[in-house]
Structures are given as C-alpha cells and as structure tokens.
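Entry 14. Structure prediction run on the chain below.
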Amino acid sequence: MTLKKETTGEWYVTFGLEVEDTTLPEKPAVDDVDAEDCVGLDLGIQNYIYTSDGNSVDWLDRSDEYERLRREQRNLSRKEHGSNNWEKQRRGVAKSKRRIKRRVEDFQHKLTTWLVTTYDAVFVEDL
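Output returned:
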C-alpha cells in the first residue's frame, strides 16, 4: 500500500496485488498475422503520428490550457511567498498542470485504444 499526496493537496492510496490472469489471449506468431490488418506508425513534426495506410493524427491543441497555466503562474509570482493566498494560488497552478497532464493522457489512451481495436498488429519506428 502506498500513500501519495499530490501537489494539489489531494491524497491517493495505491494497492499492489499479484493475481494470475488467464483471460489474456496468447501472443500471435508473426506468420499468423495478416499484413492487411497491420499498421506502421511514424512520429511526425507537422502531425502527431502518420500511419502506413495514409492516416494521420493531429497534435492535441493545448493552447488554451497553457494560457490558463501562464495566467495562474503570473498570479502566483505576485503573491507573498508562504502566505495563505500564495498557498491557494500554488494549488491553482498545480491543478492547471494536472488538467493538462490528464488531457494528454486521455488523448493518448483514446489513440492507443483506437489503434489496437482497428489493427491486429501495430509497429512503431525505432527512434
């Protein structure tokens, strides 16, 4: 069991359990995978990723969240360090960072879910 206090002031408890999971499917052999159901991913500069079948995924637009974070940090810099108002504003900055982090994680989770449900095999370039 692990207790963790976030910078926003929230507490989380994490439990670690070891279980035998027999419901996972076996990893298929390379010869059994159909080439038409495979996709290769290439990380891009203009777009987030390009797929070998011609699809591309745009970057996540986070400009509004970063503008809000800049505003929160600017307000924090104007507070007296260690005061109650400084502490409240520090939590506001932490919440803005958490919001950005969670939005990115949600975007990546939805993207990977789409990839594994659409294709049988996904290959990523070696950077």
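The beta strands are 2-5, 11-14, 38-43, 49-51, 56-57, 121-124.
Filed with the rest of this week's runs.
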